[in-house]
Amino acid sequence: MELTINGVQHHIDVEPDTPLLWVLRDDLKMTGTKYGCGLAQCGACTVLINGNAARSCVTPVGELGSAAITTIEAIEQDEIGQRVVAAWIRHQVPQCGYCQSGQVMAATSLLKQTPHPTDDDIRAVMVNLCRCGTYNAISAAIHDLAGDVGQEGAKK
Amino acid sequence: MTNRLKKIFAVVIPASTVLAGGTAWFVTRLPASSFENTGSQGEPSAQLMARGEYVSRLTDCVACHSVPGGAAYTGGLKMVTPMGAIFATNITPDRETGIGAYTLADFDRALRSGVAKDGHRLYPAMPYPSYAKLSDDDVKALYAYFMKGVPAVHLENRKSTIPWPLNMRWPLAFWNVVFAPSDVYRPDTSKDAQWNRGAYLVEGAGHCGACHTPRGLAFNEKGTDRHSAAFVSGALIDGWFAPSLRNDANTGLGRWSEDDVFRFLKTGRNDHAVVFGSMTEAFNNSTQFFSDDDLRAVAHYLKSLPGNAQRDGTPWQYEPTQAKALQPAGRQGIPGAQTYMAKCSFCHGADGRGQWEWVPPLAGAASSLVPDSSSSINVTLNGSGRVVAAGVPDSYRMPSYREQLSDRDIADVLTFVRSSWGNRGASVTAAEVKTLRKKTRPADSGVVVLKIN
Amino acid sequence: MRNASFDAMAMSDVPVNLSRRRFMLSSAGIAAGAFVLGLGVPQRSARAEATKLRGTKVPAFLEIRPDSMVRLQSPFVEGGQGTFTAMAQIVGEELDADPATFVVENAPPGDAYVVMDNGMRITGGSMSIRNGYSAMRRLGALAREMLLQAAARQFNVPVEELTTQPGRVVHAASGRSVAYGDLAHEAMSLPVPNPANVKLKEPEEFRWIGAPVPRVDVHDKSTGKVVYTVDVSVEGMLHAAVQHAPRLGMTIQGVRNEDQVRAMKGVHSTHRLPGAFAVVAERWWDAKRAAEAALIDWQEPGPDTTMRVMPADFSTEAFRKELADAHGPGEDAETRGDVVRGLKNAHTVVEATYASQYVNHAQLEPPSALARFNPDGALEVWVPNQAPDMFRADIAKRTGLPVEKIIIHSQMLGGFFGRHFLYETASPYPQAITLAKETGRPVKLIWSREEEFLRDTLRPMAAVRFRGGLDRNGIPVALEAVSATEGPTEGLNNKRGDRLDDSALEGLTGKSYDIPDRRIAQHFVKSPVMLGYWRSVGNSMNDFLYETFLDELADKGHQDPYELRLHLLRDNRRLTTLLKSVADLSGGWKRGPFTAADGSRRARGIGMASPFGSEAAAIAEVSLENGRVRVHEVWEAIDPGKVVNPAIVEAQVNGAIALGLSQVLLEETVYENGMPRARNYDGYPILALNQMPRVHVKIIESGEKMGGVGEPPLPAIPPAVVNAVSTLTGRRIRSMPLSRHDFAS
What we know:
heterotrimer, A: alpha+beta, Ubiquitin-like (UB roll), DNA polymerase, domain 1, five-stranded mixed beta sheet, about 35% helix, C: alpha+beta, Aldehyde Oxidoreductase, domain 4, 3 domains, 21 helices, globular, disordered N terminus
């Protein structure tokens, strides 16, 4: 079957119920998308499908058809994604970094849909888990992009 | 004493004695078996054994008579009744603890009449009212399989916890007279062979009604065959609502084709639904092992059972209005919508439509349309056991949310689900969630397939 | 980890393997094939100069490339705590090279990289910066000295005339300068100067130490470029998954459908391992499904097993009662005065039992390992670890290979929190090695999240019987704590040491409150589960147990908990300053309950801790929402003595607060019938973004001996929260997590 990932068509030969995550990681060697739980609980595997955050561990490739898939590998080629990464660096968000591919994808999706998210919007949408506890830095970075710097979570 | 009195006594006392004696005889008598005078069966043929094993798949004996980790058919499954717990028995051919000493007639009486070798009445948790319809040939094959194909294991049965006097079994003899059919399946000559085979499987061997037919006050199935509108019309059992298998468009199979039914029973999934709850065990251990012909017969027969449009209401149609409400700003004002997006939407979709046959839709699902919310609550609290088709476990499973969501959260999200995308199941209360939370346990995340040998 | 048995092994000086270097180079995001200087150079000259001082083999650590980029082999593993950046700052400070020009990697095993004074190499116990600080500064200074000497030769001037600017040696007199990159080749072949004579900077001169320098790994971590062990791939590699025995100690009796499993799509082979069934396949997804599909009959272990066997009837609920009912005098861990007399003479005696729960590490990266046997007989293992030498020694023991033949690759860790110590039954690498051997191919084994929850080691449970004596003014004058527990170190060694396990009691011990008569003791109760270190180890629970009981004492004595703590610390200037700082940070101590601006009823609680050489105090503000505790604000003051990177410290405080909140609000590992009930995050919720409070951090540099940072901010959080909840509800809460308590009524 054919998949369109980061603007490139890939031919893959797998069962249609194979999760996108493992096609990315094992077939296409794109390991920036992480396996955390395999159960849509943590969000480390988040990618964009037609611009919306999706959890690739619960996305059967047979469902995708011609959908445009964007992974973390191409995030800086996306205008909003690039801004998110820059904010992530400004706010020094990552600690261990393992969940951050997913966090960056989720934030990009949020900002595509809601350019000026409120604190409530961020709490509603940013549901990916981070065991290092970078949540306040994530909120601050997104607020920064939303032009809403007054509300950031972490204050000294 | 006057003569008149004497006369009365002369009549009443013997009559009472006869009545009492008759009652005693009735409740302890061994019912007739077609195999009463059949002698030893000798060594069964391989073909008969294979047939017997197949029948055991149809009748799904293993579902109750084995437990995970236990030896095949040694019993032990705990069944909780309002009076106390009972335990499925050892049906291996062990002579002391199993059924090794059973003759074919003894076996037949247990299977089709619910009477053990020693004459005690089985609880109708054993679906003998359905098995009564089994043909003599299938009974014979099943007996051959259990005597020679199943390894004998010496394991004592566990005593039921039902206290005296409720543990007396003889009243069941009367129950049987009223509620249990006592005749084998008689083909309906107005129907074709496939239909009749389907009826035999659904009403008899497959005992679908045991879960899917509502029960009366005496724990009796309200209908035991196609002649009753109550038959497989949906029922609450063990914390799950087993939906209607009739042509109800919303709460039954009305929107399913015969092929949908076939695929569901063969692979555990189709575009409408994926097996979950208690059906997982029935699928893992039984229906997928039916021959294709038998499954098509089941589908053909089920699709012939009329629905109840009055009860079911106008057929469900998808309503796309919810999409806008699920934007971040919108959903914060709708109870349950945020939980849906955070916990459910990644698999079931913001549109509620699931993902093809891999993740079931919630839009239009029977569990979201039926007034009883037990299945919705149960699967949300506990997730679902693994669906294992042809030896391969499912790629995607339903997680358990009992540790993440409060009773109120679950009530809200299910009320949202059951009122979105055209769904119109009743709203869910926190109290209902609380009750089921206490009575249920999270599903096993690993594969559970019961041993049959 | 302090009592962990550690084989002092003969570290080799074998020259590093270049192909592996190239791998690491590319994994660090640098174009492969860059001209490598320094590391290819035999280290003999450096070794000849080595003295007893640790961490002086400059070429082993540093490579300066022609473009003056500095590659540093870090003796401490990076797992999110920021140690790579701190190492770059510390070395860069003395080397005079901007940390931004550093590429930092995990160093391979070897004596050269043992820089801690205790002779061990472990990343843990919040020890890296405080124990590596001096050695790494010295390393930078030595390297700078070598560059100066090389420049002196090149310019033909006395070395005294040379100075440095970041990345350059400067000869001011002639106006000449040369980039480090142009000197590296010559500099690194010079003998390492005598470390005893090297001059270090005065702290006033620091340019990078003490500054909020940006982390060196943030861009890679924000764009998915970091290669964790789970991501590594080598040519010809197969993927493996396992199904573990449901209870530890059980072994395979039979596999009912092994032929069917072998025939599943993509399956290469199946393998029966000790306590596990493995499937090797072309893709991990195929391996995982096949491993799950296996229907295995497990048998109980024989009587001669040396393993810690999990009994079929074990439940945490029953164990909780067993601990609470375990009475015994206990063994003294810390005593002062005479607690018997103190309690006897007390005006009031308060008795209560407090309890903690098992918790999982739940780091986001599932455990994995990749093993490859090379044609030359060497074994390469990629393994997440906090101590590469210990892992290498263990692999040598398991395989019979000499350590020279074992190459350990340490990738960055996708979180660890204590997960990647050498845990005999909780690590996939022994399985990966066996599978590589049996298949003759490189094999990468990943434990699914479900298998990880089944085999993870747990933070211990404890029930502590407290008795506190108050004088007639309500001031605590005597305190006894007897903890029924097993410590993580004695747990993972599966035997008790000659002395008590510090990690069992720290946080009950080491408190600074001036209570004249006191006794802290352990009543040993063996735990059936495998125990491990969890972020802030014993302190993670013991400060909760102690500090909440202290609030109970305050209540019984009609004391304000903040004022009481100030009183008990009146002669301790450092902690008085700390406590007042956190109160000031919160706008002044305000216990509540009070009504907040949004109309909610709120209260604040306080907790203190002295973990891992640092001091911390926290205040939490809570309310109840639909019967559940919501934490709105956390103020925390931390005094680690000295700070290398305040931005990283603040990030670590945020992270530790999150984990502390997660523990106190949500987390509990429940066992039933000998098995963990939760096998994924669905049944083991951890803190999410919408549960994260606002955090306010105050860093105090008291100038005391440098303490740790990664763990110390955690232990004060659970008691601060629970003390606030007790104030808000009027109910004394004596156990975690709060989700077990119903506040709806």
